[in-house]
Write a structure and sequence with these properties.
Chain B: One of its GO terms (molecular function) is phosphate transmembrane transporter activity. Chain B: It is found in: Cell membrane. Chain B: Belongs to the binding-protein-dependent transport system permease family. CysTW subfamily. Chain B: It comes from Lactobacillus acetotolerans. The complex is a heterodimer. Chain A is mainly α. Chain A has two domains: 82 residues; 223 residues, MetI-like fold (Orthogonal Bundle). Chain A is 76% helix and 0% strand. The longest helix of chain A has 40 residues. By secondary structure, chain B is mostly helical. Chain B has a single domain, classed as MetI-like fold (Orthogonal Bundle). Chain B is 71% helix and 0% strand. In chain B, helix 3 runs antiparallel to helix 8. Chain B is globular and about 70 Å long.
Chain lengths: 332, 297
């Protein structure tokens, strides 16, 4: 290191000696006062840079550590059902016999898996046309002012806590279903309606973004060809934004699939294979919410619940993957 | 004339769909406010909850919600700010950045019940903190981090590139430029982002029922010693928030006036969310005008 510094000193001194038009600043420095140590050290600015970059990167590391440990912890406990309690994973996914306190042959989650998928799919399928209609209305039909009003209402509805939706479902939807169809009123239909209202604003606001991203030139050229408004919407706008609208629907489905309390309040919480839309049932999330406090850590009933949590986590990863996949296809 | 007829039919259908949605939305907001507001009295806000009789209030739940919100923001803001600065200012466009972004997206799409259960596993059981405010605040931090990070990142990216170039032209380091130029310019957007995410944290319940707990302890509001078990500032005591309270009175159904209590609490929550939503926008606009001396808007 010192050899290198000596070399550098030699070069600097030689340069100073050789310069024909003495530079004001170099001249003032005088060859004897050249501080090689200072020249070779990082400047104050560089230090600040390391400091700032390090500090902000630390925050990133924390977040990544968090994601990894969530997946790790939930995975570890969720897989314990299969590795230390020796539950057959095929049995877990295909049996409807859910009574983990009775031993490892009674851990079948199919009823909850089917219910979770049913409420998610039905609510997203009902919500999608409404959301697209409202989004089209906001971007193509209405005046700017009413579009802005609708947008703030949608934002407000996205922000309403899910327990409030659950409470409304419990006091309005469940009694209504009880009166119309009989039975208790709790069940997939009630959960679907609550989730429909919950995911509607989510899908709507994302669809509005998708429609706004369609270039105006496309709309103008369609109008210039004499197309009616509906022809423009159907053949140009919706085609151009298909992939982003799909992404919006998947986001809505992810929200519906992971929603716990609102669903738990109206689904009835009986782990039974749903035989119709108004029979009490249970989803993965509702079972987790209502049972986690009743089991002891490390026992089979508890581990079985963690397996449900793992399943939820994997589904959320799958939804993420789908969004990425569609996003990539849309770009092509 | 098919095209024109179809156009008219489509228009009619879209208007019908929109009318239905508006009816639903108005019905929801109206129902919450009309059934809840009459019960939302000062007595309700200032008396403690009753465990089996009618006539209880939500004083402790309201305080717990606010306290948890403040703690959560205090913990998550520095981390989210750092992460957002890294992503918008330092990150290069390579696979590492992509991995970071993907993991933040994963975190933001995780169901809140999974985040809550992770908090339960890590803090309540592993670290032996029990059902406590601090466990709840940390679980809410996990839930809040990705949203806050992306809100702040958007605010930072709204600052024009020329501002950064001006800083660098003065010979400032990137870090100095960020702290001295970019952050102040992005402040209105950052504050709006914080308030918006605060609205979500305030109403979150699923992440809390297994971390902050479902029951309150006796709280003494005159005890300022944060280490005393009855102090309202103690972070180790279990705490039930407003949202958890709605869930609990409805699923346990012990108190006879559960519907009234939850209607009033729902109205309270919705009003707070409305205040947060409009407050965020008003705050952002006001700060923007003050800091940039512009008269637009």
């Amino acid at each position: 290191m010192s050899e290198k510094n000596d070399d550098l000193k030699k070069v600097v001194n030689q340069a100073l000696a050789e310069q024909k038009v003495p530079h004001v600043k170099l001249d003032k420095m005088k060859p004897s006062t050249v501080d090689i140590d200072k020249l070779t050290k990082p400047s104050k600015e560089t230090h600040q840079e390391y400091w700032g970059k390090g500090l902000t990167f630390l925050a990133i590391v924390l977040i990544i550590l968090l994601v990894v440990s969530i997946i790790g912890f939930v995975g570890e406990h969720g897989l314990a059902t299969f590795f230390s309690d020796h539950v057959n994973i095929i049995h877990f996914l295909t049996s409807t016999d859910w009574d983990p306190t009775q031993g490892k042959n009674h851990v079948g989650a199919l009823a909850m898996i089917v219910t979770s998928f049913l409420v998610t799919l039905i609510s997203a399928l009902i919500a999608a046309p409404f959301a697209i209609a409202v989004a089209l209305f906001m971007t193509e039909y209405s005046s700017k002012r009413s579009a802005k009003f609708l947008q703030s209402v949608t934002e407000l509805l996205v922000g309403i806590p899910s327990v409030v939706y659950g409470f409304l479902g419990l006091t309005i939807i469940v009694p209504a279903i009880r009166n119309i169809f009989g039975g208790t009123g709790f069940g997939i239909l009630a959960a679907t309606l609550v989730l429909f209202v919950m995911v509607l604003p989510t899908i709507t606001s994302l669809t509005v973004d998708a429609l706004k991203a369609v270039p105006t030139e496309l709309k103008n050229s369609s109008a210039a060809l004499g197309a009616t408004r509906w022809q423009t919407i159907y053949h140009v706008i919706l085609r151009a934004s298909t992939s982003r609208i799909l992404t919006a629907i998947i986001f809505g489905m992810a929200r519906a699939f992971g929603e716990a309390l609102a669903v738990q309040m109206v689904i009835g919480n009986a782990v039974l294979m749903p035989y119709n839309l108004v029979s009490p049932s249970a989803t993965l999330t509702s079972q987790l919410t209502s049972q986690m406090g009743n089991t002891v850590m490390g026992t089979l009933p508890n581990n079985a619940l963690w397996s449900l949590a793992l399943l939820l986590l994997l589904m959320s990863l799958l939804f993420n993957f789908l969004v990425h996949l569609i996003g990539k296809k849309g770009k092509k | 004339m098919h095209a024109k007829r179809n156009d008219k039919i489509a228009t009619v259908f879209i208007y019908i769909f929109v009318a239905i949605v508006i009816c639903i939305l108005a019905g929801i907001l109206g129902e919450i406010l009309i059934t809840g507001l009459p019960h939302l009295s000062w007595h309700f806000l200032s008396s403690s909850a009753s465990s089996f009789q009618a006539g209880g209030g939500v004083r402790d739940q309201l305080f717990n919600s606010v306290y948890l919100l403040i703690l959560t923001i205090a913990i998550s803001l520095p981390i989210a700010l750092g992460a957002a600065i890294y992503l918008s200012e330092y990150a290069k466009d390579n696979w590492i950045t992509n991995t970071i972004r993907t993991s933040i997206e994963i975190l933001s799409s995780l169901p809140s019940i999974v985040v809550g259960l992770f908090g339960y596993l890590l803090f309540v059981i592993q670290f032996n903190l029990g059902f406590s405010i601090i466990s709840g605040a940390l679980a809410l931090t996990f839930f809040n981090l990705p949203i806050l990070t992306s809100n702040i990142e958007q605010a930072l990216e709204g600052v024009p590139q020329s501002q950064r170039e001006a800083g660098q032209a003065l010979g400032l380091s990137n870090w100095k430029t960020i702290r001295g130029i970019v952050l102040p310019a992005a402040l209105p957007g950052i504050l709006t982002g914080i308030v918006l995410s605060a609205g979500r944290v305030f109403g979150e319940a699923a992440a809390l029922i297994y971390t902050a707990g479902q029951s309150g302890s006796t709280i003494d509001y005159s005890n300022w010693n944060a280490f005393s078990p009855t102090s309202f500032l103690n972070v180790m005591r279990p705490a039930e928030t407003l949202a958890v309270h709605i869930w609990k009175v409805n699923t346990e159904g012990i108190i006879p006036d559960a519907t009234i209590v939850s209607a009033a609490t729902s109205a309270l929550l919705v009003i707070v969310v409305i205040i947060f939503n409009f407050g965020a926008r008003a705050l952002g606009n006001m700060l923007y005008r003050k800091l940039t001396a512009s008269n637009t808007k």
